[in-house]
Amino acid sequence: MHAPHAAPLTKLPGPPNLPLLGSLPWMLGREGVLMRLLELAGVHREAGLFRVATPTGHAPIFVVSTALAEQLFDEKRFQKAIEGPLLNIREFTGDGLFTARGDEPAWGVAHRVLSPGFTADAMERFLPAMRQVLEALLMHWRRAQSPVDVVADMTKLTLDTISLCGFAFEFRSFETPALHPFLQALGRALQESLDRLHRPALVSALFPGKARQLRDDVATMASLVDGVIAARRAQPRAEWPQDLLSLMLTEADPKTGAMLSDENIRYQVLTFLVAGHETTAGLLAFTLHQLASNPPLLARLRAEVDEVLGTREPTRKELLSLSLVMRTLSEALRLWPTVPVLCVAPLADEVVGGFHVPAGQPLNVLMSAVHRDPAVWPDPDRFDPDRFLPEPSRARPSAAYKPFGNGKRSCTGRIFALLEATMAVALIVREFDFTANGPLVIAPTTSPKPKGLRLTLTPRRR
Fold first, then answer.
1. 0.85 surpassed by pTM
2. Which among 404, 416, 432, 434 is annotated as catalytic?
3. Does 343 participate in catalysis according to the annotation?
4. Which residue in the list 158, 279, 280, 328 is annotated as catalytic?
5. Residue 395: alpha-carbon gap to chain centroid
6. DSSP per-residue codes, 158-203
């Protein structure tokens, strides 16, 4: 579709583009690129989209309005594209569920094979393992003699949970003060995937150590995963647990009959370890900061937990009935979606916001901005879980809230993540009073997280 009145993409608004530097001087800030993009979204809200030039010569386009997002989420006209950090993350997750391109067949095979692993029955099986890891966190916090490092501890919690539930592998992260070598390698690799976007080629050539470190980190992660897979294969089949790894090793695609290759199983395990812990850790950290900063909300939420759970071990049904806890998590995901950008590309030429977009041109829907679109969200920067009561939720366009992606490429593990996060928040507020060490500052990381967040804990007075 090419309307004669549509403007070329070269006419898109955005910050200046300097030789060698691109728009870098306008994108630097202590809280990273995401916060600068949110500021630009406010400047270009009326246009609905803008362009930012990078020092590498690339110029990604960002879409920031709900109205345009609604158009771009039409899967008959647009499909998922891989750009930005995801392009670099592919170096260690390949064609896994999260980073597979739209035309790569491995995504469909893996999606069909793994979907049974996220049914209601599967969630029941995972609940004891979730509770086991959460108890390790609570024990760690009971022993704490000083404010706790929330992001580090949520990272340990979520990594240990997905590895135990999905692959019967125990990192036992709370038994040592240092992060597991896998987590250290993963953290460096994710940060490098972001830093590369803003590093001129000349600078990269001057620091070959960064490329060498990334290769070493990818090898460290692959070695651990290959060991987990080999250990499972060495077990008698009758002893294999009912988890995601067993599914991938034994089940054929019901549509094509194809089995996942060993290489793709590695990519899927790495994908779940990356996406299954990084995003939920950020969600929990933002939620705990908000509760620590909002005593009336904390009191309401705790009253709900006391009424529904009491002092009992929670069941899945009880966790899913914690309406305020789940609305609070939803509101944290609105303000700080753990996947802040969804990239799509048109299948044919399109007109988007008055601009001609050729087929295949990536467009980055900045969900952090769409989730704050004042045309849809009144007083968008205010934290208000009651936005997610049934009536206001029904009145919103579907594109206004997409914390887990869109359509068939939405997050396979979203029910798992929300159940895990709901249990964690419920049991933490049931046991502890806590205060935060200061205002919210965003860390310049691939998936947004609070920077330097510490909580001072005291056992709850009953």
1. yes
2. 404
3. no
4. 279
5. 26
6. HHHHHHHHHH-----GGGSSSPPHHHHHHHHHHHHHHHGGGS-HHH
Residues 6+ apart with CB under 8 A from 169: 163, 228
361 Ramachandran zone, left/alpha/beta (phi>0; psi -120 to 50): beta
H helices of 336-402, where? 367-370, 390-395
Contacts of 265 (CB under 8 A, 6+ apart): 229, 245, 248, 249
Amino acid at position 290, single letter: Q
Cα distance between residue 187 and residue 172, in whole Å = 18
Residue 126 bears catalytic tag: no
Cα separation of 312 and 184, whole Å?
Answer: 36
Three-state DSSP class for residue 148: strand
The neighbour count for residue 434, using CB atoms within 10 Å, is 22
Instruction: Report the relative pairing of strands 49-51 and 355-357 from DSSP bridges.
Output: unpaired
Query: Is 404 labeled as catalytic in the residue annotation?
Result: yes
Which among 280, 317, 274 has a CA at the least distance from the CA of 425?
280
CA distance 275 to 416: 12
Radius of gyration of the chain (CA): 22
Render each residue's pLDDT in the chain as its tens digit; 462 residues.
456 689 999 999 999 999 888 898 888 887 888 899 999 999 999 999 999 998 878 899 999 999 999 999 999 999 999 887 888 888 889 988 888 887 788 888 999 999 989 888 889 999 999 999 999 999 999 999 889 999 999 999 999 999 999 999 999 999 988 888 988 998 899 888 888 877 766 666 677 788 899 999 999 999 999 999 999 999 999 999 999 999 999 999 999 999 999 899 999 999 998 888 889 999 999 999 999 999 999 999 999 999 999 999 999 999 999 999 999 999 999 999 988 999 999 999 999 999 999 999 999 999 999 999 999 999 999 999 999 999 999 999 999 999 999 988 888 889 999 999 999 999 999 999 999 988 999 988 778 899 999 999 999 876
Annotated catalytic residue within 62, 98, 343, 411? 411
